[in-house]
Amino acid sequence: MQTSRTDFLDRIRVLLTALVILHHTAIMYGADGGWYLRYKADGIASSLLLTLFCSVNQAFFMGMFFLLAGYFSTRSFESKGARQFLTDRLLRLGVPVLVFGFVLGPLTNALAETPAGETVWSFWWHLMSRVDFNIGPLWFAYALLIFSVAYMALRLLLPRLSWNLSPAVLNHAWVVFFLVTWGIAAFALRLWVPTGQERGLLQIGFFASYILLFFFGCAAAQARLLENIDKKLALPWGWISLLTIPSLFAYAILSGALKGVPFHVNGGWTLPAFAYAMWEPFVACGIMLMLLWRFRVSTQPWAFWKKLAPLCYAAFIVHAPVVVGLGVLSQAWKDYSIAMFILVGCASLIMSFGVAALLIQLPGAKKIL
Fold first, then answer.
1. Would you place residue 344 in the very low, low, confident or very high pLDDT band (cuts 50, 70, 90)?
2. Boundaries of each Acyltransferase domain copy (predicted)?
3. 3 state DSSP class of 4
4. Which of 147, 183, 254, 303 gives a 20 to 30 Å CA spacing to 163?
5. What is the largest CA-CA distance in the chain?
């Protein structure tokens, strides 16, 4: 199978999209986090497993989306010019935000919260008629639109600013510097806005990594740094990530979290908050580097990746009502948390990508999706 030099990045996007869908399914069945529909986990073991899955995801998957977005933003800006770049961003990011916010977001709310005596459709119409805007997972497209405009403004206002990182940054010392900067920035930002709180429709507490990774991606594009991650760099950081993952949970247990002792990691001048802020980058780095290396050197990638890659964005957009709808339909079995996470998660993946395959066939859809 013939593949382009960046084909492996498309395969990573498929994986990340699948993880987003599974992440929200896990929250629905008892993991910590916010979602439209939530069921209580059937026990502490289920809750911990699902929360561990979501915590590891949260450390890297959205940040990696921003990294890849930045990587391709530079090429798009340079090939299209500022005006066409902005038009393209408004179309591909702005339109989905509006469609989800005014149509699919209210639908997802209606599926989760329709009062007794009303139908989902009548309550959905009620929410839309009162212009009930719900951005949901499309906060990502909204934030990316803001980042894209900021990037374009920097390129226009500071034309002499170099956006070309040298391959020399691909070394362990530079990685440590980047991760420490990430952790300190996250800790400082959460003193202002703890994780779980929103400002302007965004959970700002997570944005230290998103900003750093997006603009790193922009600066890494010219030298094609993401296409030059090798085993020598990735493997040690993969082991560091693996060893780091249980450390935060061990710290929580030793601090008495299982006995009810508060262990608040969301923000503030506390050791748990600092530990969490530093835990995230050291978990995320190895996972991202391993993905970039392993997906690139894969000699015989599954042919189906190529069919799924164009569907990622549309699947991301539509997955919320799919996940919630399946959760409502199967609520009779909601007490089997892990089993339902697996079953509903797999069904949500199939349905989200299936709906996406239909959507991109609509006239003009490919220009947006």
1. very high
2. 8-359
3. coil
4. 183
5. 64
Tokens of 156: 């226009």
Token pair 């009930």 is found at 132
The mean per-residue pLDDT over the stretch 154-178 comes to: 93
Q: What distance lies between CA 2 and its chain's CA centroid?
A: 29
Which whole-number Å values give the CA distances from 231 to 53, 170, 302, in the listed order?
25, 12, 21
Burial letters for 30-50: b for 16+ Cβ neighbours within 10 Å, e otherwise?
bbebebbbbeebbeeebbbbb
For the stretch 261-317, pLDDT in tens is 888 999 999 999 999 999 999 999 999 999 999 999 987 777 788 899 999 999 999
DSSP 225: G
For the chain, helix (H) and strand (E) counts, in that order, are: 14, 0
CA distance 218 to 289: 17
Tokens at 145, concatenated: 């639109």
In the Cβ-directed half-sphere of 134, how many Cα atoms lie within 13 Å? 19
Q: What is the pLDDT of residues 84-114, one digit of tens each?
A: 999 999 999 999 999 999 999 999 999 999 9
Task: Name the percent of the chain in helix, strand, coil, to the closest 5.
Answer: 75, 0, 25
- Distance, CA of 96 to CA of 286 (rounded, Å): 32
Q: What residues does 199 pair with on adjacent strands?
A: 202
If you write DSSP's letter for every residue of 110-121 in order, what string do you get? Answer: HHHHPPTTS-HH
pLDDT, position 2:
44
Residues 6+ apart with CB under 8 A from 85: 76, 77, 148, 152
How far is Cα 89 from Cα 141, in angstroms, rounded to an integer?
9
Q: 198 and 224 in contact (C-beta within 8 Å)?
A: no
Rounded distance between C-alpha atoms, residue 97 and residue 134, angstroms: 9
Cβ atoms within 10 Å of 166's Cβ, excluding its own:
12
From the list 264, 229, 205, the residue with the least C-alpha distance to 67 is: 229
